Amino acid sequence: MDLQHWQTQFENWLKNHHQHQDAAHDVYHFRRVWATAQKLAAEETRRLLREEFEQFPAEKIEAVCHAIAAHSFSAQIAPLTTEAKIVQDADRLDALGAIGLARVFAVSGALGVALFDGEDPFAQYRPLDDKRYALDHFQTKLLKLPQTMQTVRGKQLAQHNAQFLVEFMAKLSAELAGENEGVDHKVIDAFSPAG
């Protein structure tokens, strides 16, 4: 889950719907509560591991908490342990391939985001905007994920699954051009991940 995205969404909603609210309950109050909630969540994770999973090795608690924090793309926390690198790669792999494709359109649909810009679906003549167009998310984030992978196997899987997304884009491009049986090889050439 992209917490930064949701923080921005909530702040925009507050600005639009509660701009005349008293000063004690303004957007700055929300930001303070949001930051405190994140700190409490980290501390609660540590407590749960200690108290609810008593058999869990105490010396592993900080490593688990670090892996949870570092897995987030938006948090931009570098994974410092092998475990954190593996969890980060696993989370990013879930954003690629067939599952990633389904997730992009499921989230976009839930947020009321258009599938793509009908005039310029691959943003050749406009800035990318994945808050307005689901397909733009491929270029703003998903196709960049293979370069962020921490493990050798994670990178291999990410490149393979990113290529699946490129092939989807190529098929979509062909269909938009009225070619229902082929793919647009220019899209494959332009967007295929470097091996």
From TrEMBL:
It comes from the Bacteria. InterPro entries: HD/PDEase_dom, HD_domain. Pfam families: HD (PF01966). Keywords: Hydrolase. The keyword rRNA-binding does not apply. One of its GO terms (molecular function) is hydrolase activity. PANTHER family: HD_PDEASE DOMAIN-CONTAINING PROTEIN (PTHR33594:SF1), SUPERFAMILY HYDROLASE, PUTATIVE (AFU_ORTHOLOGUE AFUA_1G03035)-RELATED (PTHR33594). This is Hydrolase. It comes from Escherichia coli.
